[in-house]
Design brief:
With 248 residues, the chain is of the alpha/beta class. It has one domain: HUPs (Rossmann fold), CATH 3.40.50.620. It is built from 6 helices and 11 strands. The strands form 2 sheets. A 9-stranded mixed sheet has the order 9-8-7-10-6-1-4-5-11, sandwiched between helices. It has a two-stranded antiparallel ribbon with strand order 2-3. Helix 2 links the parallel strand 4 (57-64) and strand 5. Helix 2 (68-78) crosses helix 5. The longest helix is centred in the N-terminal third of the chain and has 15 residues, at 37-51. It is globular and about 65 Å long. The protein binds adenosine monophosphate. Adenosine monophosphate binds at residues 6-8, 36, 38-39, 62-64, 94, 97, 115-116, 118-119, 122, 124-128.
């Protein structure tokens, strides 16, 4: 069974992002970039399935600038077998990413695609769903548990108000939620080993998918600064303050 894991290079989740002075976007100059945390969870799940003998190959794919090869290398150090980079200096929207991933899937023919539920830069939460629609494959999003047997995936999903368990026939798209697993840190020997694993670098433009924007960013602003709170001495004082503020 072959697993394909799309991984995105994003601003590291520990970085406090700064808006560019012209409000056109977020400043990416000299900012630490890392693998999107939900993609890390997807890689971890795929590697665990490989280690359990359920999967025979884990292929990671990233679409983005040349440095996205480092993100792929991180996934290889975690245990993935090989990588594919679709290189572009543009920043493709989810529909374009989904179309490019579909082109890769048509070539690679994986049995399952495990990907992040969301990339923490654009917070789109759209690519997996769009990819499932383009392929006409079943989708199980926000997975917190995944079990594969008899060419089916049993997926527990985190939904509002509880957990839902679905069974989907493979091939299928599964998107990873936070509680699916805790990704491992790559060990030094595995980082060294990953240097010898292959990454196939291709031009994203060679897939016949037009990389054009349907959206225009009007402006990006910082969230409003938090106003200072105050401490109350008693529950009574709290109630009267809430009454004054018109909350009660
Ligand atoms: P999004 O819909 O943008 O929130 O992203 C959801 C998931 O789609 C991510 O966690 C990745 O698995 C995948 N994805 C999004 N953009 C890319 C990209 N440029 N390259 C590879 N995978 C991507």
């Amino acid at each position: 069974m072959k697993i394909l894991v799309p991984v995105k290079r994003v601003v590291d989740y520990n970085v406090k992002v700064r808006v560019k002075s012209d409000q056109s976007g977020v400043d990416l100059a000299n900012v630490k970039m890392s693998m999107n945390p939900f993609c890390e969870i997807a890689v971890e799940e795929a590697v665990r399935l490989f280690e359990k003998g359920v999967a025979t190959e884990v292929v990671v794919v990233s679409i983005g600038v040349a440095q996205a090869a480092e993100t792929i290398r991180t996934a290889l150090a975690m245990g993935a077998d090989r990588g594919i980079l679709l290189s572009t200096d543009l920043d493709p929207e989810p529909l374009t990413v989904a179309k490019l991933l579909k082109a890769v899937i048509d070539e690679e023919k994986p049995n399952i695609v495990i990907m992040g539920k969301q990339a923490i830069d654009g917070d789109n939460n759209a690519t997996g769903q769009m990819l499932a629609a383009l392929l006409d494959w079943p989708q199980a999003t926000f997975a917190s548990d995944l079990d594969i047997a008899n060419n089916k995936a049993k997926v527990t999903r985190e939904v509002d108000g509880g957990l839902q368990t679905l069974e989907v026939n493979l091939p299928a798209i599964v998107t990873a939620d936070l509680r699916l697993n805790e990704p491992r840190f790559a060990s030094l020997p595995n980082i060294m080993k990953a240097k010898r694993k292959p990454i196939d670098i291709k031009e994203a433009s060679s897939y016949g998918v037009e990389i054009k924007s349907h959206l225009k960013v009007v402006k990006v602003v910082e969230p409003p600064k938090r106003e200072g709170g105050s401490k109350v001495e008693s529950a009574q004082e709290l109630v009267s303050k809430l009454k004054e503020a018109g909350v009660l």
